[in-house]
Structure formats: C-alpha cells, structure tokens
Design a protein that fits this description.
The structure holds 2 protein chains of 2 kinds. By secondary structure, chain A is mainly α. Helices cover 70% and strands 0% of the residues of chain A. The radius of gyration of chain B is 18 Å and the shape is globular. Classes of the chains: A mainly alpha, B alpha/beta. The interface between A and B is medium-sized, with 27 and 25 residues.
C-alpha cells in the first residue's frame, strides 16, 4: 500500500465534502428519478474511510451512517435493476461499519424481508443476503449461502480466491472457528492486495481498506469471537482505529 | 406476404431522399443489404428519418425504442478500418482484442462525434489509459450538453440486434448505468484522466439532464442490417451508431 499522509487524507476529505455540498445545493431542482444518491453515498463512504485512517472514529461513524442512508435511498431507486444487489450490499456494509446501535439489524431485516429482486451479479446477492442473515442470527441460511459462495464458479480468474474466501468466512463465524476465519480472511485479503488494489488505484478508499474483511471481523467480534487473536488484524488493509473501540 | 414488408421498406427508403430510387438500387445490389436484412431493419425500427449515401456506403438514420440509431453499411469494411480506423497496412488478423477496441475508442468514435459538430472537452485526457471509464467525452455546442460515449468492437450479434448484452460490467455495475457513470467519473478523476473541474461540470450536467449517452459499435459480422433491442432504452441511451463492416477481422 502506498503511504498516504494526513495532509493528503484531509485534502481528500475536503474534496469529497465539496462534491456532496455541490450536489445538495442543487438537490431540490433535480428530478426525483435523477437524484444522485449513489454519488452522495460513495463520497460519504470515502470520507468515512479517510477519517478512520486518521484515527477519528467518531467522524467516521457519522459518515458511514450517512452513507448507509444514501445507499438505502439508492437501493429504492434501482430496485429490480441490475445494480440492486451491489447497492444492497453497500447499504449493509456501511451500516456495520457505522457501529450505530441497531442500524445494521434494521438494514438486514429490510434486505431479508424484501429480498433482492435482481440476482446478477450473483456474488453481490449472496454476499448481501449472507451478511444480513449473519447479523440476524439465521445460521442455517448463512451456511447455505456460504456453501453457495464457496462453490460459485469464478466469473473471472481474479475471483478464484475471493468467492471461497467469502463463503468460508460466513461459515467460520457461524461455527465460531477462528482458525477457519483466519484462513478465509487471508484469501480475501490476498484477493484485495493482488487484484483490487492495482485495479482500483492505490489511493482510492476501497483500495486503502478491505471492506469485506473488515465487515466479517466486526461481525465475528459482535458474536463474541476473540478476533484480537487473529494475525489478519495486522494487515495494512485493516484500519486499526476501527477496532480500537470494538476491542 | 413476404413481399409486403420489403416493399414497405423500399417505399420508406425511396421517400427518404429525392434520389431514393438510386439508393434502393444500391440496396438491392449490395450482398450485405439483401431484402431479408432490409426487412429486419425496418421491422425493428419505429421510423426511418433519412438515408444518406456516402463515399464508403450508406447510412440509414432511424429511430427505435426512443433512441436515434444510425446504421452505416460500409461497402469495403477492411478499407474503412485501414483508412478511418488507423489500422494502415497491418494484418487485420494480428489485431488483439484490445487493439480492436482501441480502433473504435480512439479513432472512429471521436471522428463520428467531430462529424456531428461536437467539440472536444477541456480537461479530458484522451491519450491517458482509459480502461477504467468513459471512452470518450465530447460537447454538443448547440445544446451545451456533454456527450458520454461508450465504444465497442464486436464480432458477435451476427444478424442480431444490439442490446445491453454488448455492455460489460465495471466495478460490478452495468456499463453506462447511472451508478457506473458516477463510479467511472470518480475513478477517472482519481487517475487524472479528467480534471476535478471537469468532474464537477459532469456531475452538475448529470443532475440537470445536460448529458447525452452515445454508443458506437463497429460490427464485424457477416450479417448486418439490424438495429437495437429495447434493453438499450433502459440504459437511457440517446444515440447509437452501428457501423456494419462485414466480417473482415477473423
């Protein structure tokens, strides 16, 4: 990972805040069907990541909460469309990262009760539904989705490690198996480092941190697993500050 | 019954220009534009707005599924690629998939936009690697709208209409969908392909409906004469250019 200093992080925060403010200034004049919730959500997600890298969890919680709200609005807009599964996934991931009481459960109930209508790309649907069931404690459903992910045919060579990693991470949390969780997250982190970072660019928010690994660690912790014993916590893509309070 | 659609098509085409009869004769002579292809083109098209004879062939201007569709039939597809696609004397069989895509992205799409009177946009580095985002960005000086272009070279859709299946997924989103465009603009700014100022202008233009979406497809297939599927309307394209070159790249 490239070194990014606090000056660069603060500059990125200001840039993303400018984008949000400019968008909100013209918000009332934008027709409902064109309202760019995704842009707001994505910027808020980036700001949340930059604050967590600066060690400011209070601010990151605030921005991840905003990102959750905007991703939920975005999901309403793309319901039944191709992009729905990924947006549903982001709404849940942001809710977990916000650490706001009850928010992740609220989003999880929404996803499970309403279902995700569009099922392509498949792994986003599995991931969003798997996380939702994990949050709600529906362990049989988690294991079933975990199996589906583990055996999902990779649609691209770069996903060879990723899908089994995701699937095994789900199942290991249900089984409360720390060793299996470590192995699964190592695969996810390897995919992130080798495939995603070069593609996304080293300084983008979703390259600086590995969202899937973080969300599994937070959910494992919530279930009482002693994640502090895991070596993956030392990964450069797992921001220490996010776990300071949790642990 | 077989003769009716064809006759209707011929009448439409004959009405389209004063020298329509001559154009129809061209259609009938062309191996690529046999009556079956012509019939299909007409059946899948809401209106035919015009027929233009060019040095290299014919362009039929139509509207289908609320999208302006220009279908250009090139008399000599290989020569077209060499002259307009910048291929020169290279052996066409040696072109990699990447190079085939680059022909449309770097040469043909910008040329078509220029022919329409669109201007290049300050702050967009066309030369920079653009695997990650919008293939070309132009500006329509008449409407002051930004034109966001996706360029494709395809050897598929032989004898079939072009639908959203021609568009890939990027970052898990369907190319040219609203989320994909937002993602692409962010990534392009991150990698200095567009300036922050242009990012701001594009986002404002999206919010105020001051953008057009354009798809340029070079179709390297034996059968042509087809148009588009309704799935492209869902992605809110404004304009589609289909350039039928025949199957000239193996």
């Amino acid at each position: 990972m490239s070194e990014i200093n606090s000056g660069e992080l603060n500059s990125k925060i200001e840039r993303q805040k400018d984008k949000i403010n400019s968008t909100l200034e013209r918000w009332d004049s934008i027709p409902e069907e064109q309202k760019p919730y995704f842009r707001l959500a994505r910027s808020a997600r980036s700001i949340g990541v930059y604050f967590i890298l600066l060690g400011n969890q209070k601010e990151s919680d605030k921005w991840f909460t905003k990102a959750t709200a905007w991703f939920r609005d975005n999901r309403e807009k793309v319901r039944n469309e191709h992009n729905e599964p990924q947006i549903a996934m982001w709404s849940l991931v942001m809710a977990v990262l916000s650490t706001k009481d009850g928010l992740a459960k609220e989003v999880a109930v929404e996803i499970v009760e309403e279902g995700i209508k569009h099922t392509s790309p498949t792994y986003f649907t599995y991931f969003a539904e798997g996380l939702a069931h994990l949050i709600l404690g529906n362990d049989d459903a988690v294991n079933e989705i975990g199996d589906s992910l583990t055996t999902l045919e990779p649609d691209a060579p770069e996903n060879l490690d990723f899908y089994p990693g995701l699937g095994d991470a789900h199942k290991s949390i249900v089984a409360e198996d720390l060793d299996a969780l470590e192995t699964a997250l190592e695969r996810v982190l390897s995919w992130h480092s080798n495939e995603m970072v070069p593609m996304l660019g080293e300084l983008s928010d979703d390259a600086l941190v590995c969202f899937p690994a973080i969300v599994f660690l937070l959910l494992a912790h919530k279930r009482g697993l002693e994640i502090r014993k895991l070596d993956v916590l030392d990964s450069e893509y797992i921001p220490e500050a996010l776990f300071n309070r949790a642990l | 019954m077989d003769g009716e659609p064809r006759n209707a098509a011929l009448r439409l085409l004959a009405d389209a220009e004063s020298d329509g009869v001559e154009i129809v004769s061209y259609f009938e002579r062309s191996a690529d534009l046999d009556s079956s292809n012509l019939r299909t083109l007409v059946r899948n098209t809401d209106t035919i707005d015009g027929v233009e004879r060019t040095d290299g062939g014919l362009t039929v201007e139509t509207e289908a599924h609320n999208i302006d569709v220009d279908t250009a039939f090139k008399r000599d597809g290989e020569q077209y690629l060499r002259d307009e696609g910048g291929v020169g004397n290279r052996d066409l069989a040696d072109l990699s998939n990447q190079e085939r895509g680059d022909i449309v992205e770097d040469e043909i799409a910008p040329m078509l936009m220029e022919e329409r009177g669109y201007e290049t946009v300050a702050g967009f580095d066309k030369e920079a690697s653009n695997e990650i985002g919008i293939d070309y960005i132009a500006r329509d000086p008449e409407t002051d709208q930004y034109v966001l272009v996706e360029a494709k070279f395809t050897s598929q859709f032989d004898g079939q209409n072009i639908g959203s299946g021609i568009l890939d997924e990027g970052y898990g989103f369907k190319q040219m969908s609203g989320e994909w465009l937002e993602e692409a603009i962010e990534r392009m700014e991150e990698k200095n392909i567009i300036t922050p100022a242009l990012t701001d202008e594009l986002q404002a233009a999206i919010d105020t409906g001051q953008t057009q979406k354009s798809l340029v497809v070079v179709k390297n297939t034996e059968k042509g004469g087809r148009t588009i599927r309704p799935s492209l309307e869902e992605l809110e394209f404004d304009n589609v250019d289909i350039i039928q070159i025949g199957e000239v790249v193996q």
